[in-house]
Amino acid sequence: MYIDDTIAAIATPPGIGGVGIIRVSGKQAFAIVDSIFESSGSLPLMDRPNKTVQYGHIVDPSTKKTLDEVILLLMQGPHSYTAEDVVEIQCHGGIVSIRSILSLLLAYDVRLAEAGEFTKRAFLNGRIDLTQAEAIIDIIDAKTEDSLTLAVSQLDGTVSNFVKDLREQLIAMIAHLEVTIDYPEEDIEEVTSHEVGEQLKPIAQQMDELLATAQSGRLIRDGILAVIVGRPNAGKSSLMNALLRENRAIVTDIPGTTRDSIEEFMNIEGISLRLVDTAGIRETEDTVEALGVEKARQYLDKADIVLCVIDGSTELSPEEIDILKSTAGRNTIVLLNKSDVNQVITVADIEAHGTFTAVESISAAQGEGTVVLSKWVKELVYGGQVSGNHDTMISNVRHISLMEDARSQIQQALDSIDSGMPVDFVATDLRGAWEALGEITGDSLRESMVDELFSRFCLGK
Ligand code: GDP
Ligand code: ZN
């Protein structure tokens, strides 16, 4: 991968702001900015003290025109975000000012950075590993304080350190095994096999403990999809409103968010929750009814929690029985609504149609719903464990699947040892586990994967 050139991009969000920041990174960063920067100091930027702020103006050398008054932040590699020489130009936050400085830079030997390219350089230059780069995306995307805490701890290296430690232990065992492959005496192989087996057991256990946090971790990181179903007039909209009044999330700009109130984001127990009213989908899909039904089914398939709203004050209709049957056997909370008026439906009436996670009475009209939902969100995410400890958690789906892969190869190794297979079989399994773990941190990696991963960043990051 070629990273000899100098790149630049606008690092602040599009639009007008108090300051605009342009980030320049690479071997020529100081020299190029120097040629468009004028200040009272006479020293070249390169010779000014590192990590200082320099005041001056950006001047187009060909026209002598001053583009803006700026301050520069000088950061010499390797102690910078990219581990290269970095200059950050802070100008006044107008669109014209930022863009004209950027175009002036691009007239020099500077290339416009791709999305995520600064972070990719930090990775390629060895300042951070892949899990830390991913943590940076997660920090930017975090929608709750809990998901932020999780991402920050990942940036600190909790996942990396765990993985690196495992890999070191594995490589030592592989070496141990490989030495004995060259020894013809059978008994040495056997002794080594036994030793490696004993060392592998605690490793397998550590991996199991980490994988046990995967469900919580994933839900904290990615949030929960809760889908509301129920016949017309059961009280779905009332429930949605009751929940929103207490838990509305401060969320802007989530791609695909529509404001037609079939889908809302909220924050419950520190978890970001996406709530969808499936009837709302049908109501807003004015084209073909079937399209709405199909979409509703897709939401249901993906749901982490199904909220099935039943009007408790009238007999179950055939439609409601159908809904109950189709949502039974999964994580479905049946809400017997309208508890403020006379109830004719009992828990037994509901359970006659299937198995549900819970059947609870609420009055959505009186603003109830949050207590019940909070309880089941907590149950789903933490499963009765104490919440709030994100010290060593695995949360990223990519990490989880590689960790599971590594774990199953360790199991194969253990099984091979048990059944007295030759040591080279065991070594092969361990090498497989070592590789899979290396993909988590990016130590063993495929270039296409790296490109795909960094393309998910925003520009200027
Ligand atoms: P949806 O069609 O399922 O979205 O149902 P709505 O939320 O629009 O409610 C249908 C009707 O039931 C409205 O007249 C609501 O005022 C009423 N309703 C909803 N929840 C309750 C409740 O908890 N108690 C009572 N008494 N009425 C309710
Ligand atoms: Zn409705």
Automatic annotation (TrEMBL):
Keywords for the protein's UniProt record, in alphabetical order: Cytoplasm, GTP-binding, Hydrolase, Magnesium, Metal-binding, Nucleotide-binding, Potassium, tRNA processing
Binding site for (6S)-5-formyl-5,6,7,8-tetrahydrofolate: 23, 88, 127, 461
Subcellular location(s) per record: Cytoplasm
Enzyme nomenclature, EC number: 3.6.-.-
Details of cofactor binding: Binds 1 potassium ion per subunit.
Binding site for GTP: 233-238, 252-258, 277-280
Database matches in InterPro entries: G_TrmE, GTP-bd, GTP-bd_TrmE_N, GTPase_MnmE, MnmE_dom2, MnmE_helical, P-loop_NTPase, Small_GTP-bd
Coiled-coil ranges from the UniProt annotation: none
Pfam families: MMR_HSR1 (PF01926), MnmE_helical (PF12631), TrmE_N (PF10396)
Residues annotated to bind K(+): 233, 252, 254, 257
Known partners and oligomeric status: Homodimer. Heterotetramer of two MnmE and two MnmG subunits.
Entry function: Exhibits a very high intrinsic GTPase hydrolysis rate. Involved in the addition of a carboxymethylaminomethyl (cmnm) group at the wobble position (U34) of certain tRNAs, forming tRNA-cmnm(5)s(2)U34.
Family: Belongs to the TRAFAC class TrmE-Era-EngA-EngB-Septin-like GTPase superfamily. TrmE GTPase family.
HAMAP family: GTPase_MnmE (MF_00379)
Name this polypeptide is given: tRNA modification GTPase MnmE
Species assigned in the record: Veillonella absiana
Organismal lineage: Bacteria, Bacillati, Bacillota, Negativicutes, Veillonellales
Gene symbol of the encoding locus: mnmE
